[in-house]
Amino acid sequence: MVPGPLAGHDDSNYAECEDFMAKSIMIVDHSAPSRRTLRNLLTQNGEWVISAEAVDGNDAIEKARHLHLDFIVLDFCMPYLIRTAWKLRTN
After folding, report:
1. pLDDT attached to residue 54
2. Cα(20)–Cα(4) distance, rounded to whole angstroms?
3. Strands 48-54 and 71-74
4. pTM assigned to the model
5. Could you give the CA distance from residue 49 to residue 39 in angstroms, rounded to a whole number?
6. CA distance readout (Å), 4 to 17, 23, 46, 74
7. Which of 36, 37, 54, 66 has CA atoms 20 to 30 A from the CA of 77?
8. What is the edge-to-edge ordering of all strands in the sheet holding 48-54?
9. Which pLDDT belongs to residue 6?
10. What CATH code is carried by the domain that includes residue 69?
11. What distance in Å separates the CA atoms of residue 75 and residue 42, rounded to the nearest whole number?
């Protein structure tokens, strides 16, 4: 059972539970305005932190090697999307 208010438990330790720590996200998109819009949207959730932004697949792969990321948001129209996603998943 997950601790916290939804499970009917005392929520005094809710923020300390590892499952509820801020999630680290990288946004990958060639368009600066798109990255900015996604950043503004995602950071409205206090449990999400944008740890990095990348302008293409190679940039994303390089940055992901040095970061502990929970999620990566990829541009679906990005060239070499499948190759990039596969490399990110295997690293």
Report:
1. 96
2. 9
3. unpaired
4. 0.73
5. 9
6. 9, 17, 16, 31
7. 66
8. 48-54, 23-28, 71-74
9. 43
10. 3.40.50.2300
11. 15
Closest by Cα among 37, 16, 36, 28 to 62? 28
Within a domain: 46? yes
Give the per-residue pLDDT at 18. Answer: 54
- Which helix H or strand E contains 57, and what residues bound it? helix 57-66
Residues in the chain: 91
Total domains in the chain come to 1
Within a domain: 27: yes
Q: What is the pLDDT of residues 31-83, one digit of tens each?
A: 999 999 999 999 999 899 999 999 999 999 999 999 999 999 999 888 888 88
**25: three-class secondary structure by DSSP:** strand
What residue numbers bound the domain in which 44 lies? 22-90
> Residue 84: inside a domain, yes or no?
yes
For residues 28 and 59, what is the distance between their CA atoms, to the nearest angstrom?
8
